[in-house]
Design brief:
Layout lengths: L7 H11 L12 H8 L1 H6 L8 H16 L7 H27 L3 H26 L12 E5 L2 E5 L9 H20 L9 H17 L2 H19 L6 H6 L1 H22 L1 H8 L4 H19 L10 H5 L13 H29 L5 H16 L10 H15 L4
Antiparallel strand pairs: 1-2
């Protein structure tokens, strides 16, 4: 993507996504939020294309109105008002990305470049954390943990960079992965211009394996295997050629799986430890969190806890060990209620139908990668909807589906 081919809206797209790299730095005044507010004049300059996303903006306006009304029944108005402000900024952020994409010269390239930059930037700090066992002041964990299995001790080195905890960082990396792979799956040959994407992909996978999140590891494995399948059985080959080499290509994929599993056993023992304990008490606790969330939906008669009311409402449940849903969809249902949740699903179905009708290409494949692994990376982090990365992720998927490919 040459700089001479770009316009200011490409730059805005890149900056909004790239600014996610500093995560929670700044607290409420995170750089991505500040940038979204600074770009409001440019947002209105692109407002002429608002009809292109009329259903999306209609849903966002209804959701915002519902959250505002829910201040009546939210259990703590202080948290409610703060969360409502965050939602306003995040809705603006999503809207800006979508509208800027309508006027950008190369929206897909700008968005992918932003995600790649963010991965590379955070990876510098992530690898430093893993190697030195030192962490930024934002991290809630001070050092590596140690697990004793018989006579063997496993040291869990991890990276959380600017995101505060490893689960939030892993979620961010999973959001980024489809757009990193977008730069690689649609090309005939890997060239010098793809080196940054290759480096970002390598570092992303290594950090997720070190962090050892089961949802993150499963998401990465699924997306990488599907992307490899696309590379080997892409639309570029005719059916006869595919049939001729099918066994060879399946053999390559099988070899990658076997070698990857063996290397993982030796280089990342914490991953193996986590998967061996898949039925442990921690896993049962996660199901308990979800049951409590559904109970809250019933307790609120389907209206939801109200904006900012999730944590306080979870605290009212007897013997509740965790006060957050750990589930993107459940968090939406618990806080915003059945009606907003149903409208969200209806809008998602509309976009899925549109995606299904898209012509084959790298953009369509990137969306497929995001969709096929989302059941796993949607349950990694403790909360999702107060994170700007969540809205940037959904905005990126929408413009990959609706905006022209380059």
């Amino acid at each position: 993507m040459r700089s001479t081919d770009l316009n200011k809206y490409d730059v805005y797209l890149f900056l909004l996504i790239a600014s996610l790299a500093v995560g929670n730095l700044g607290g409420a005044l995170q750089p991505v939020r500040i940038l979204a507010l600074l770009l409001v004049p440019s947002f209105f300059s692109a407002f002429e294309n608002v009809r292109r996303y009329k259903w999306l903006f209609g849903f966002l306006l209804f959701w915002l109105a519902w959250l505002s009304v829910s201040m009546i029944w939210t259990p703590y108005n202080g948290d409610g008002l703060k969360s409502l402000v965050y939602y306003c900024v995040h809705f603006l952020l999503l809207s800006e990305i979508c509208l800027f994409a309508t006027k950008a010269a190369k929206p897909h390239g700008a968005v992918a470049a932003g995600w790649i930059f963010a991965v590379l930037f955070t990876s510098v700090f992530g690898m430093w954390e893993i190697i030195t066992d030192q962490h930024l002041s934002l991290s809630i964990d001070a050092s590596a943990s140690r697990m004793h299995i018989g006579s063997k001790t496993i040291i869990h080195h991890f990276a959380s960079t600017f995101f505060g905890n490893l689960n939030s960082y892993v979620t961010f990396l999973c959001f980024a992965l489809p757009f990193v792979l977008f730069k690689l799956i649609g090309v005939q040959k890997i060239e010098k211009k793809h080196i940054t994407a290759c480096i970002a992909l390598f570092l992303l996978v290594v950090i997720i394996l070190f962090n050892g999140s089961r949802g993150g590891v499963i998401s990465v494995v699924i997306m990488l295997l599907v992307a490899l399948w696309m590379r080997l059985f892409g639309n570029r080959c005719d059916r006869n050629k595919q049939s001729k080499h099918i066994y060879k290509r399946i053999g390559i994929i099988s070899a990658v799986v076997v070698v990857g599993a063996v290397l993982c056993c030796y280089l990342f023992p914490y991953v193996i430890f986590k998967f061996k304990s898949i039925a442990d008490i921690g896993n049962e606790a996660r199901f308990g969190i979800w049951r409590n969330g559904l109970q809250l939906v019933l307790n609120t008669h389907g209206l939801g806890t109200g904006v900012g009311g999730v944590v306080v409402s979870y605290a009212t449940i007897p013997n509740a060990d965790f006060l957050v849903p750990h589930n993107l969809l459940l968090e939406l249902l618990v806080e915003s209620g059945v009606l907003v949740f149903a409208l969200f699903l209806a809008l998602a179905v509309k976009y899925l139908i549109h995606w299904y009708k898209m012509p084959h290409g790298a953009a369509r494949s990137a969306i497929l990668l995001a969709l096929i692994a989302c059941p796993f990376y949607f349950i990694i982090d403790s909360t999702y909807w107060l994170s700007p990365a969540t809205f940037c992720f959904f905005a990126s998927l929408i413009i990959f589906a609706y905006e022209r490919s380059e």
